[in-house]
Amino acid sequence: MSVIEYVSTPKTKVTISSEPAKKPLVDLHKLQQYKSQQQELRTAISAYFDKAIAKGEIVGSGVSIVKSDSIVMSEGFGKRNIKFNEGVNKETVFRLGSLSKGFAGILAASFKNDGMLDWNDRVSDYIPEFQLGDKTNTNKITLANILSHTSGTPYHSYTNLVEAGLPLDDIAKRFKSISPISKPGLMYSYQNAVFALCGEVMHKVTGKEISTSLEDRFFKPLGMHTICMDHETLSQSKNIALPHIKTRKHWKPIKLTNKYYNAIAAGGINASALDMAKWMRFLLGHNPEIMDKSALKEAFTPFIEVRGRSKYYQRWPGHLKSFYGFGWRIHKFIEEETNEEKTILHHGGSVNDFRNEIALYPEADLGICVLLNSHSKIASKVIPDLHKIVKNVFKQEDCSINDSQKLTSVSNSPLNKTTGSIQ
Questions:
Q1: Whole-angstrom Cα distance, residue 37 to residue 43?
Q2: SS3 for 162?
Q3: 277/152 Cα distance (integer angstroms)
Q4: Can you tell me which family this protein belongs to (predicted)?
């Protein structure tokens, strides 16, 4: 160690270390390649949505792509309201619809991990007024059944009552007049009303509304600041996307409705593209301080096969089979490049003429979410379309985002490379 004293400023000394500078923790070449790929991705995604807007296929969209611990992009395209020139950005709030089910499934998995509930808990133990079929059948219906649409209720039973705004405890009482179509656990039959009862179960377990539990366990720790779960908060937001319907060849904005806020677990959450990016990064296991990856996987475990070929996701490239877990669809597909079986964790959502898609590719550590403020034919194929674009851009394995993310904690600026200090 040596000290240099400057004559012009006798009180100022510079200490210079003779130790060699530490090797940067970031490969600058890889970082440059990553940034180039990130820009290439943004250009390609922008072209995709600009084309859809020009063709009149959509009005506006919030798009998020997460790879490893990186939010590669979280941006908006098009307009919040077709009548005005206010564009969608990453913090524009959309209604999520059934993407909400994925939040409920993860929340239940979190409570299960803490030993507060179990998948085999009987629904009637928490909601005594709930009855489906005789007592023997009712006693066999578990939390796992209502989270996986396998309770034995007919397709969309009492969704009309949910949309009419009836309280869930009132709806729960009415199932005694319905005849089950199967024994619990044997048949997949999609629900909103029965699924939403999981929120009531969790309320009984914790003493908190599901909205409070979601805020406390996930939204606040993850910094998901634009998310909300009630009509009033959404209506007062200054940056919201309005829903649109098509009349002949033109889009027309319509009013926000207050439907599904009585059934938050089934369809009552609102969020922006940025919040969904943070959510996907968490779901991919990059916030273990909030929830362990093994606990997350419980919601992503197949519980029942969704048979048939009529659903849009069953026509995605390489599709083999589809299942439902707890608030999530699980698809198995053959990846064209490797001919290997891979997994997609997925859900679609539709409410109040919003249309949304979320998909996680766990083997690739990749998440894609698209929020639309209109129904559109591109919704059924936007996930495989964007997945293809992402693969084409990040095709070189040695340019992984994992390496570039070290930049978030290590700076390569010249100031940090200096080993001397002024005394």
A1: 10
A2: helix
A3: 35
A4: Belongs to the beta-lactamase family.
Single-letter residue type at 173: K
CA distance 99 to 15: 58
User: How confident is residue 30, by pLDDT bands cut at 50, 70 and 90?
Assistant: confident
Q: What's the pTM value of the predicted model, to 2 decimals? A: 0.88
Phi-psi region of 339 (alpha: psi -120 to 50; beta: other; left: phi over 0): left
Question: Can you tell me the distance from the alpha carbon of 357 to that of 345, in angstroms, rounded to the nearest whole number?
Answer: 11
Query: C-alpha angle with apex 124: 118 to 126, nearest 5 degrees?
Result: 65
User: Which residue type is seen at 316?
Assistant: W
Split at pLDDT 50, 70, 90, the class of 28 is confident
Q: Are strands 13-16 and 2-5 parallel, antiparallel or unpaired?
A: antiparallel
Candidates 370, 353, 88, 74; CA nearest to 241 is: 88
DSSP run (H or E) holding 198: helix 193-206
Angstrom distance (rounded) from CA 229 to CA 199 = 13
Provide the token pair at 26: 């970031």
Nearest-Å Rg of the Cα atoms of the chain is 25
Q: What φ, ψ does residue 220 adopt, rounded to 5°?
A: -70, -50
The CA-atom distances, in angstroms, between 377 and each of 52, 76, 312, 380, 397 are 10, 19, 11, 6, 33
Task: Give me the DSSP letters along 373-419.
Answer: SB--GGGGTHHHHHHHHHHHHT--GGG-HHHHGGGGT----HHHH--
Domains and CATH numbers, the chain: 28-408 (3.40.710.10)
Q: Which residues pair with 64 in a beta bridge?
A: 74, 369
Residue 171 backbone zone (phi > 0: left; psi -120 to 50: alpha; other: beta):
alpha
> Percentage helix, strand, coil, to 5, in the chain?
40, 20, 40
Token pair recorded at residue 152: 């034995």
Both tokens of 188, joined, read: 């997949």
Which one-letter amino acid corresponds to residue 166?
A: L
